[in-house]
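**Reference record**
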Amino acid sequence: MVVLAVVQGITEFLPISSSAHLILVPHFLGWDDQGLGFDLAMHLGTLVAVLAYFRTDVASLWQAWVQSMTARRRDSEVAMAWGLILATVPAIVFGGIIGLMGEEMLRVPGIIATTSIVFGLLLGWVDMRAPCKREPEQLGWRAYLAIGFAQAVALIPGASRSGMTILGGRAFGLNRQAAARVAFYLAIPITTAAIAFETMLLLQNPLEDAWGSMAMAAVLAGVSAFAAIHYFLRMLQSVGMMPFVIYRVVLGISLFAIFGWSG
């Protein structure tokens, strides 16, 4: 449990796919599926981490959004707040569809390996070719909608939500840190939606005597996620995306070698 919580916290915000790691680690250690309560706790921990790290930005964007409706405020920060809301819509819609169809059909090692490799290489290609001159406040609604669709694609396990949203931001000329910030901001509503969905499922099948383990999982995931965000932002400008691209390709090849297509 400790290992999985730390792995989830680190990989949730790095462009390397948390779902791939949460398949590999239990396989090597011979563990069973961690269960819905554990998923809920880890999501709660990572949500608190991103809110804590960007607390000033989140408060400012929230204020801008509220004032856009109460005081008819109109500026770049308001546009960004509404842009982030727009970018959330595709993932919510597609997430609902996948939830109804059943996500398990996509959690096939071959699919995860393929998306890890393909979208990893695409991330590296876009990162090398795209300009690094824009800030999130300079994006229009079309750009935010496109980034939202990129995030929706990341609902396919292995694609990496962080990786796909960074890819979308870089494609529209955001510098690396700005693209990462947008990816982290977008994690807030998506993770909140995931927590709400998991809570509803959990209420239908209550856990017994698992609250201590869930609390520990939330704390460990939150602390490791906070550290991952901090160091990822610090290293972006110097190393770019290539180390993560190489890691994703190696990870995908490893999944194919160990599990084949269907595991």
Summary: The two ends are 23 Å apart (CA to CA). The CA atoms of residues 13 and 241 lie 13 Å apart.
